Amino acid sequence: MSSSPTRTPGHSHFLSLPDLAARSAGGAVLWANDDVFAEKENLIKPGPAEHRPATFGHKGQVYDGWETRRRRGATADSHDSVIVRLGVPGIIRGVVVDTAWFTGNYPPEVAVEAAFVDGYPTAQELAEKVEWTTIVARHPVNGDTRNPCAVDSPKRWTHVRLCIYPDGGVARLRVHGEGLLDPRFTELPLDLAALDNGGRITGCSNMFYSSPNNLLLPGAARTMGEGWETSRRRDSGNDWVQVRLAGQGVLTAAELDTSYFIGNAPGSARLQGRDGDGEWFDLLPQTQLQPDTRHRFLVDSDRAVTDARLDIYPDGGMARLRLFGRLTPEGLRRVNERWDAAA
């Protein structure tokens, strides 16, 4: 049968709030202990789950959701789990565990935990070292149903962990809440690298799979193909891309977005700047990156730059590069000159 919403009294108030876990909001599935039958990444797809009966792959019926193998010898506490990073830190008001199309293979019970973690921990660190807080206690759910659960917590969270008892399939996980602005980023100015602000690519080591121009496009990438990706290096070097900024400016923050690059994200990156033909200097030292993550870094430098260079180690792909800063008086003067000259 088709899935329809369950609107339990007292639960429906949060459904109008945005889904902070959705892929379109910048969410990502970072880890699952098992997804042998259906991929964990399906959990946060923005649309409803689809189903085509009698569509079989090598591992069985193809499901648009997350499905684990059948546990053998399970105890009362045996469970599978998956970790989702929210697109933005926020206060969670409710979750929906949607078991659409899972009828004989849905989990009888679920629980949801949350954590606030600064920075970009690895999946292993999240699974083994982070302290998790229960925000939805273990309770029964129905198959082929949107199961809503209100959350009564005033705290801010960055990650959620869905636990299913003992195993089974979940089509979608929705995490409704209110996003919070990190006060450290309240002074973000213009994106001086953006194509629509006049930024442009001036050099690149490799663009085997896709153009580096994609890095500067507006909006979020919707697929891996909408970013920049290099071929696999077989030497000791690294790939890089160079950007001419909209004008001379002082950078205050950088965003390095590896969204959709999961098995082919760079291991680390370094950001440098220079003014005109001057020497390159570090804006961001070589820093570890995580797959499928929108990284935001403060830039601690008051030196003016006209160009930036992003080195990735050793190779891989990136969805977007944002370089936030303010034009210097000289930079603004030249922007005005170019504008008037083109009249």
Automatic annotation (TrEMBL):
Top-rank lineage group of the source organism: Bacteria
InterPro entries in alphabetical order: Allantoicase, Allantoicase_dom, Galactose-bd-like_sf
**Does the keyword field hold Chloroplast?**
no
Recorded hits in SUPFAM superfamilies, A to Z, give: Galactose-binding domain-like
Where is each Allantoicase domain found? Answer: 26-178, 198-327
Any single biological process term in GO: purine nucleobase metabolic process
Instruction: Please name the pathway.
Output: Nitrogen metabolism; (S)-allantoin degradation; (S)-ureidoglycolate from allantoate (aminidohydrolase route): step 1/1
Whether Hydrolase counts among this entry's keywords is yes
User: GO: which molecular function terms?
Assistant: allantoicase activity
Write out the entry's keywords from A to Z. Hydrolase, Purine metabolism
Q: Which reaction does it catalyse?
A: allantoate + H2O = (S)-ureidoglycolate + urea
Sorted alphabetically, which Gene3D superfamilies does this protein's record hold? Galactose-binding domain-like (2.60.120.260)
Identify the EC number(s): 3.5.3.4
The UniProt family comment states:
Belongs to the allantoicase family.
Official protein name in the record: Probable allantoicase
Origin organism of this chain? Mycolicibacterium vanbaalenii (Mycobacterium vanbaalenii)
Point out the gene that encodes the protein. alc
